[in-house]
Amino acid sequence: MVGDRHDLSAQAYQGGGRGIDPHLMSSLRDTVLGDFRPDLTLYLDLPPSVGLQRARARGELDRIEQEALPFFERTRAR
């Protein structure tokens, strides 16, 4: 299976971007996923400003893409 999201994106967006307690995020992950973990994770990184530029160029923004730059900077730092 190939997926473009997993618990790592939730940890970044909710934990980093929204400041939710990392221990709560880990507890939720363990409750929902149990022992399931991906065999391989690829992390593609680019500056948040570039990502937002690309999203805006596509047209209508989704709920996450409507966040301000500091949200994505916190997310990236996570």
UniProtKB/TrEMBL annotation:
One term of GO molecular function: dTMP kinase activity
Ranges where the record places region Disordered: 1-21
InterPro entries according to UniProt: P-loop_NTPase, Thymidylate_kin-like_dom
- Group of enzyme by EC: transferase
Q: Where is the Thymidylate kinase-like domain?
A: 2-77
Q: Which domain of life is it from?
A: Bacteria
| Entry keywords, A to Z | Kinase, Transferase
Sorted alphabetically, which Gene3D superfamilies does this protein's record hold? Answer: P-loop containing nucleotide triphosphate hydrolases
**EC number(s) of the enzyme?**
2.7.4.9
Query: What name does the UniProt record give this protein?
Result: Thymidylate kinase
Q: Which organism is it from?
A: Serratia fonticola
- Taxonomic lineage per UniProt? Bacteria, Pseudomonadati, Pseudomonadota, Gammaproteobacteria, Enterobacterales
Q: Which gene encodes it?
A: tmk_1
